[in-house]
Amino acid sequence: MSLFVLTECYFIFLLAFPIAMEESSSAAQSRAPISNQKPPIAVPKSSQNKEYKDAKKAFEARLWAAVKCTQSYSGGTSGTTGTKVWFCPYCKTQKSGSVARVRWHLLGMGKKEQISVCNNVPSTEKASIQKQFNDLEKLKQFEGSIQTSNSASGAMLGGPQTSYELHASTSQLNNLWDVKGRGNLDASIGRFFFANGIAFNVCRSPYWKEMVRDLVNTAPKGYKPPSYEKMRTSVLSEERARIEARLHDIKYGWKDSGISIVSDGWTDVNHRPLINILVSSPKGVMFLKCHDTTGKTKDGPYLMGLFKEAIDEVGRENVVQIVTDSASNNVLAGGLIEDEYPTIFWTPCSVHCINLLLKDINNIAWVGKTVTEAKMLQIFIINHAASIAIYRKHANLQLLRCAETRFASAFIMLQRLIKVHQSLREMVVSMDWQRWKGSHVGDGIRVEDIIIGSSSEDFWRRVEDIVTLITPIVSTLRMFDSDCPCLGDVFESMDQMREKLRDIMEDENSRIDRDTRNEVWDLSLTRWKMLHSPLHSIAFLLNPKWFHKKPSSDVEVMQNWNTFISRCYDRDDRTALRLELGKFLRSEGHFANEDCAYNREKLGPIDFWIQYGTGTPLLRQLAIRLLSQVCSTINTFSML
What we know:
Blueprint: H1 3-25, H2 50-66, E1 68-72, E2 84-88, E3 93-97, H3 99-107, H4 123-158, H5 163-176, H6 179-195, H7 206-217, H8 228-252, H9 254-257, E4 259-267, E5 273-281, E6 284-292, H10 300-314, E7 319-324, H11 328-340, E8 345-348, H12 350-362, H13 365-383, H14 385-394, H15 407-419, H16 421-428, H17 431-436, H18 441-452, H19 456-480, H20 490-506, H21 514-531, H22 534-542, H23 555-568, H24 571-586, H25 594-599, H26 605-612, H27 617-627
């Protein structure tokens, strides 16, 4: 018997019970005492909490799936209970504890645990886990209500019960199925939104959900919302103080980890050109300034002034790099900043440079022609209600639109077309399509020809060749398009991407013509030269994850190392750094520990240097500062 059916039976029973008691009161003297009668058989409780137990088990499995278990003290690495050693892929740290500590680390929700909260969990992943946790909590409250109702029912079956107790148990069930009350509340919330012109996406805000949850579950009886005057004074001041306290915690770690100042330009709904200035550190991203550049020339000196103002505000000793896109004015501003602040580097946004590479490939004649035809095909199908309805009868995957200025999305669209190729063929030969296309003869016949006509073989071959060519590039783009510290991965990731492109270029069986392969290879070299910064080489050299690649044998890496320390350190510190680097590369001192070699790839780079770099303090400080930095403009704009 399901939980719903079981609870519904109790609901009907509780409503009918007072009537049955009233009808039986007139004949009470002629019957035996109630205490001498056998009570009805109670319904088992096992089915009532099965749904909650299953949901709890699924939630715990979801948490363990989000981290990687490396060792178990109890419960097994594959179980959902027990104490385990686990690795967080978002902040690259290894921790230990039960599932409650995993929950607190990822969400910061539930009972507080003695473990830090991860600030690098992607917002979509965190929202999904939070929703599952909230659903579990609601189910837990529901279970508690059912158990209370069952206890009340047991008391009635076993002996007399006061009218107050009966009313309380009945009210709890009434609240669970009070459809009218819930509808009235929804209508009241809707009127508030409609009358004040509030956007519906506010309902997706975690703060909105938090407010409603607190109002329903924790608001004291008779609570009145704050007045206009209270909201603009004391409530605002208290929230500002709370945010400043949170920012103080973020700023506290800047001296050790260093920060990246990132900048991104955009245009708001009023067509004002704005420039955002943000600060990124391992503890979180902090908004610093937004500049309205209306009527101003955004040349190098002007941008340099904005960056200089931000550097002075956060402290020049804390800044490791400034990250912007590769526009010429930003390149000039970055050079001016490096001239004035020798220890601060300008670094191009990795995501922007990879996107420019994809734009270059799109400008190759046959590639651009293929992308244009693919766009026409998917736009025609999507823009007509009848055609998209016919398509959905034959396909489970949706066609993807591509942004005009996001070239990666065009190639993602081609990948999706390959996956739905057979579904498109089934669509255009169906009777529904043949009947409908008559009203769209020109475009309909053209789309049909692309899918199954005389030119279809050449089109689909070109689509497959493009996807083969750009897959390693898009994979690299996905890794860079993150707000997690990945400066130490840029050099090796770009090297791996170019190795895959070289394999394609040297493949004798490839259908892609030799001229195109050589052109793509040259374009990748050009964009790498645009992207490459000395910081990429130094971070690669000090990243323990790539120790096995022997980065010190790379001439370019060591040249950048010598240039970097000559620019940032005096002679005595340079000598100390060279000696300490030798210990790291030869695995001497603390690095000779057996666990050290094992943990180079197991621990996150920051944790590795914190635990094994104590014998090389200067190198440890440098490694932590570099490996804590981002390589892109922190997802300010999304490329995919």
